[in-house]
Amino acid sequence: MRVFYWFLKRVLAGPILRILFRPWVRGLDNLPSEGPAIIAGNHNHFMDSIFVPLLAPRPVVYLAKKDYFTGRGIKGAVTRWFFKLNNQLPMDRGGGSGSQASLESGLKVLREGNSLGIYPEGTRSPDGKLYRGRTGIARLVLESGAPVVPVAIIGTDKLQPAGRLVPKLRRVGVVFGAPMDFSKYAGLPVDRFMLRSVTDEIMYEIMRLSGQEYVDTYASTVKTKLLTSAKPKKADPPSRDESKSDGESSSN
Fold first, then answer.
1. How does residue 217 score in pLDDT terms, banded at 50, 70 and 90?
2. CA 89 to chain centroid
3. Which of 145, 149, 137 is nearest to 198 (CA)?
4. Which residue(s) pair with 174 in the sheet?
């Protein structure tokens, strides 16, 4: 898999993406050259998981939603094959044992001394704003002791406006911030207040790097509200009087 990853980056897809999107990067010296690191970024487009590894000097393993690995038919098989060979692991967002398994997968990547990419928001932003982070990232940080490199991915929110099937060809950028050390929490009992504090600190750095407007609400909550409001409301059935009135008017 590692061979395919480098072939994809250096020969097959990487050169084409560089020509089409002319990506720029800042702060590469902030990435640890070795050892575990958590790459935490904002999330506006599925190509975020392509541009960060493309520009990073070392492989980045991403936790991707498990739907990409469970599709059926030829399309599902191709998608599953691509994501596995592209250094991505399935992540369960449903909570409970599935989320715990995802956490363990991420910890395994870090224990092996690799870079793990994660989007603390848990899902793509519906409108280009930065939303509240999920505390799963704090659990990874506290259990692994790995430094966090905050990342701002710039311009991908403009790639594919609603209704557009093919992404626009425009420049995108990636800014790697200074590594964040949370060793001050080592040995302390972990509670929800600590998890929220660590998560919010990371989100603040992402906001500072990206310049996005911050919304203290989960992106998934906003998406649900948008979907609900977009559904056409069912018309109320006519009252008995209205039905009688319609019948009388049609018979005249």
1. very high
2. 13
3. 137
4. 25, 153
The phi, psi pair for 238, rounded to 5°, reads -60, 145
3-state SS string over the chain? CHHHHHHHHHHHCHHHHHHHHCCEEECHHHCCCCCCEEEEECCCCCCHHHHHHHHCCCCEEEEEEHHHHCCCHHHHHHHHHHHHHCCEEEECCCCHHHHHHHHHHHHHHHHCCCEEEECCCCCCCCCCCEECCCCHHHHHHHHHCCCEEEEEEECHHHCCCCCCCCCCCCCCEEEECCCECCHHHCCCCCCHHHHHHHHHHHHHHHHHHHCCCEECCCHHHHHHHHHHHHCCCCCCCCCHHHHHHHHHHHHC
Q: What is the pLDDT of residues 7-44, one digit of tens each?
A: 888 888 889 999 999 999 999 999 999 999 999 999 99
CB 64 within 8 A of CB 88: yes
User: β-pairing, 173-176 with 60-65?
Assistant: unpaired
Q: Give pLDDT tens digits for 134-171.
A: 999 999 999 999 999 999 999 999 998 766 788 899 99
User: Of 75-79, 135-139, 191-195, 203-207, where does mean pLDDT reach its minimum?
Assistant: 75-79
Structure tokens at 55: 């520009």
155 beta partners:
none
Instruction: Compute the distance between CA of residue 41 and CA of residue 177 in angstroms, rounded to an integer.
Output: 10
- Residue predicted with more confidence, 99 or 226: 226
Q: How high is the mean pLDDT of the chain?
A: 85
Task: Count the Cβ atoms, other than its own, within 10 Å of residue 157.
Answer: 21
Per-residue pLDDT at 238: 58
d(CA 29, CA 115): 15
